[in-house]
Amino acid sequence: MIKTKTTMNYQNIQVTKKDSLAQITINRPKKLNALNKATIQELHTAFDTLETDQSIKVIILTGSGEKAFVAGADISEFAHFTEQEGASLAKVGQEILFDFVENLDTPVIAAVNGFALGGGLELAMACHFRIASENAKMGLPEVSLGVIPGYGGTQRLPQLVGKGKAMEMIMTAAMISAEEAKQLGLVNYVVELEALLPLAEKLAGKIMRNSSVAISAAIVAINAGYKEPITGFKTEIDSFGSCFATADFKEGTTAFLEKRKPNFPGN
């Protein structure tokens, strides 16, 4: 594990650096590292700061503890949002974190060390590639709350696993294992939990031996091949926001917060 002091005082994440390698650890263990507005903003600041640091060649992103990478978004924060507030939530989040990470010049490796659900899987998918521990579970359960993925999930998941499997995962809200994620191409490697960060560092070492200028150009070129469906992200934002005006969303989020099964009215 990378060990050094960080110069920033974050409340929800930790940033460590060693030579040309940086590690961002989402550190909300009591919330299973769930994403709230403050965490998203801190992640943006950390990525932006590391991107401008010419000494950093690779960034590893992981979660604290042994249970979760990011178990989802902090639902209590947006359960009572209006349609407009919901759309704004998705738009701002995509701009300052998910799209931002995808388009960084500095390679970002997601080390998925447990649950990566909802916004957590969307964050992992925004990274340039992913590795996972054997205990990792991944999924997009948003429709079980009466909403859809709003941080790029409807766009990036089909790109990675194919349209049919993405449709199934999103419609059923089911989780898949790390091994199935590997078979689908969602993650590149699956290892024991204690081997996860050493593998991330090993891969980072291989990357750092190559031209950072060429790697940056490769990121731009590879991402360019997926820019045609750019309107899909706008559609996702609008559709995500419209869900906030439905009775199903109110019932789904209320049931979640009350720890009961939802009874969706279908409108």
SSE topology:
Elements: E1 13-18, E2 21-26, H1 37-51, E3 58-63, E4 68-70, H2 83-102, E5 108-112, E6 115-117, H3 119-126, E7 129-133, E8 137-139, H4 153-161, H5 163-172, E9 176-177, H6 178-184, E10 189-191, H7 193-208, H8 212-224, H9 230-243, H10 247-257
Parallel strand pairs: 2-3, 3-5, 4-6, 5-7, 6-8, 7-10
Antiparallel strand pairs: 1-2, 8-9
Helix pairs in contact: 1-2, 2-3, 2-9, 3-4, 4-5
Outline the structure in words:
With 267 residues, this protein is of the alpha/beta class. The chain contains ten helices and ten strands. A six-stranded mixed β-sheet has the order 1-2-3-5-7-10, with helices on both faces. Helix 2 runs parallel beside helix 3, helix 2 packs antiparallel against helix 9 and helix 4 crosses helix 5. The protein starts with 12 loop residues before the first strand and ends in a 10-residue tail after the last helix. 42% of the residues are buried. The mean pLDDT is 92.
CATH superfamily: 2-enoyl-CoA Hydratase, Chain A, domain 1
Strand order of the largest sheet: 1-2-3-5-7-10
What is the mean predicted local confidence, pLDDT?
A: 92
Instruction: Supply the CATH class.
Output: Alpha Beta
Biggest beta sheet summary: 6 strands, mixed
Shape: globular
Give the end-to-end Cα distance, rounded to a whole number of Å.
Answer: 49 Å
Rg: 18 Å
Secondary-structure-derived class: alpha/beta
Number of helices: 10
% residues in beta strands: 15-25%
| Total beta-strand segments | 10
